[in-house]
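Why do we care about 3D structure at all? Because function follows from shape, and shape follows, mostly, from sequence. That is the central idea of this module. The next example makes it concrete: a single protein chain, its amino acid sequence, and then its structure expressed as tokens.
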Amino acid sequence: MTRRYSRRTERLRSMLAAVGLVLAGRAGARMASVFGVSVSRSMVLRLVEALPELEVPAPRVVGVDEYATRKGRHYGTVLVDVESRRPVDLLPDREASSLAAWLAKRPGVEVVCRDRAPFFAEGATAGAPQAVQVVDRWHLWHNLSEAAERCVADHRGCLQVLGPDPAQPAPEPEKFEGPSGSPWPRGHRFADRTRVNHATVHELLAAGLSRRAIGRQLRRASRTVKLFADAATPDDLFQGQWQGRPSKLDVFKPYLDDRWNQGCTNAWRVWEEIVPLGYQGSYQRVHAYFREKRLSSGLVTARPPSPRVVAGWILRRPETVTETEHLRLKAVLVHCPELDALTGHVRSFGQMLSERQGERLPQWLDAVRRDDLPGLHTLAAGIDRDRDAVIAGLTLPWNSGVVEGHVNRIKMLKRQMFGRAGFTLLRKRVLLA
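And the structure:
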């Protein structure tokens, strides 16, 4: 019996090793049954754990990042050979000492790709002092975007230039009343039909008919008859009609506001200007918007943009910003020198990042410190503490993109082995896959 069991075990183990199956649970049991061997899920797990580890050569360029074994509580470290794009090891924690011990055993490491986490920086410095540390460019741009949004939020008052003055109460829009005093004038098809139906229902009620009889006679639902019967006047049924619906003109209203404030009150001329910009609506919408401005007692302006929206305009490439967004951003920057300086710093860093001009970083840091931008000062101080690695990240072609891909794969493996993904089995699957 023992000999038969060992033969079956060796047969299944050779199958798993031959086809590279590092599966767990029901999937492994089903795959084993394809080869004519019936085993349990636990048996497959034990066989996977018993597979010998592959001998991976020491990498020259290694990428390091964290992965969560329990998000928010416990994290591990994954190390990837950036040149071959294969994982080389998993560590059960993300301590600097663990990374330093791993790197110390591999003196052939020349480049370490990482993010700006301090424990990875300390571990790489202690374990591989001969290696060049490279900060990932995506993380640098992500940190810059967060700092830029904080700076815009600090100057949110400057964004009111595109909106109404908060010190003055917004004037209530005038209602266009018809001859009968109704807020909805005659001539609207819906309004006229509603008035006729309301009058008919109340005439039948006055004649003594019940609501159910009125519904049968007019072929209306009981809820519709109740709606007309409960309304004292037709105007009570018009509340909220045609209000708050999106319009094709909404995107171009800031441009119309600017042209109106510049003194151009000719709706036809402005309509001809916005058609090349992408407006696909009718001239009547523009005419109605300008008519509302003429009849209103105060200045009608668009809602000011949020700090995140303005930060998005600043962070995007200038050629991808639409004409309307460019005009709105220009209006903000004219009234706020700090945000104008922020825009210059962001675009200068973007050019330095995309063109691999890391040698310009010291001059960029000095320029940032000369302006009153506390959000960027915090980022500059963090970059200055890790200046050599940041300059290498802005100069060398290496990055941590392949490591991020393996972190996502680890998440998938954890979900496949929910409840049984211990560190030993998870490490085995990651390294042998």
